[in-house]
Amino acid sequence: MTRSRFELPPRLVDWSILVTVGFVAATGLLTLISGRPSDAVVFALHGVGGLALVLLLFWKLRRVRPRVTVRRAWDRHTPVSILLALLAVGALATGAVWSFGVTPRLGPWPLLFVHMVLGALVVPVLLVHLRSRFRLPSTHDFEGRRTALSSLAVVGFGALTWRLQRTANRLLDTGGEDHRFTGSTEDGSDAGNAFPVTSWVADDPDPIEADAWTLRIGGETRRELELTDSDLDPENGHRATLDCTSGWYSTHDWRGVRVGDLLDAVEPGTEAEWVSFRSVTGYRWSLPVEEAREALLATHVDGERLDHGHGYPLRLVAPGRRGFQWVKWVEAVDVTRRRDLGEWLAIFVSGFDR
Ligand SMILES: Nc1nc2c(c(=O)[nH]1)N[C@H]1C(S)=C(S)[C@@H](COP(=O)(O)O)O[C@H]1N2
Ligand SMILES: [Mo]
């Protein structure tokens, strides 16, 4: 088979795919904890990487097609390769469709969630695929000038199509224009409690009775404090956007207690670095002390008392953080010296022991 001058050596394509998949997987994970406008670059890089992968995958799939269409060419690893191709194409397609503002649900799952699942599955299936198909490159495959030029072409293609996609969104007035920089679409802003309720995995506590609830504040502090619902004086407010990683956002006027005021009352020790917020369900998340001070433990949204689904009696409002970090049904604030890595597990397993 003759190769056109624009086609890259197979091994170079394969290695470029490996590197690019690593890049989109890493940036994809990073998007989950990116919520500030200055983080927009993470989403852009993820998009550019995905589009670069479209070109690489086009080359690759064209080359290997006969190995699939000719039944004799199959070996026992071929099904894994086909599965991998389907997952990769599915992840790229769902990502692209979402970027154009088409945001259907597939049964209970938002398309963006399907995108994440497919993308996450690519990684282990790719590792299995590599076990049977891994080939060390020869120096010939990476001849300097050609490698540099082709890398440039692939990255250039990704960046250019990303740019064109934005322009197309604007010109064709697709819903993509209305996405926040995180890719999320607006839902229920300024409508009080009438915005989506999202809890994940098993977190579903019974409604909390105000008299049976207290808020404890302690840890690396000089004093401890226990407050009841009637002690909470919702005198502080923030306008902030809750942005869920499943692809929706909602902007509201939140009112409640400034965490900094609570901390002043208990006096954190000099070693205090983090503040952890724990839910009655065991769900928890922590923020660095300085950031936590500016956060809010909210009792009200747009002037309404928070309802049960949104975390009554008290929920964390952490501007610039993604929704999953806005702990609902908070009952304890714990000042600590070290970052609590167990929270990464807690958010998945909380609620299962009930
Ligand atoms: N205790 C607890 N807090 C939680 C969650 C949860 O499952 N349990 N879900 C988080 C997620 S993923 C999001 S997006 C927001 C959603 O808040 P809402 O249900 O008020 O819209 O709450 C966060 N806080
Ligand atoms: Mo979320």
TrEMBL record:
The chain crosses the membrane at residues 12-34, 40-59, 80-100, 106-127, 147-164. Residues 208-344 form the Oxidoreductase molybdopterin-binding domain. Keywords: Membrane, Transmembrane, Transmembrane helix. One of its GO terms (molecular function) is oxidoreductase activity. It comes from the Archaea. The keyword Transcription regulation does not apply. InterPro entries: Mopterin_OxRdtase_euk, OxRdtase_Mopterin-bd_dom, OxRdtase_Mopterin-bd_sf. This is Sulfite oxidase. It holds the Pfam family Oxidored_molyb.
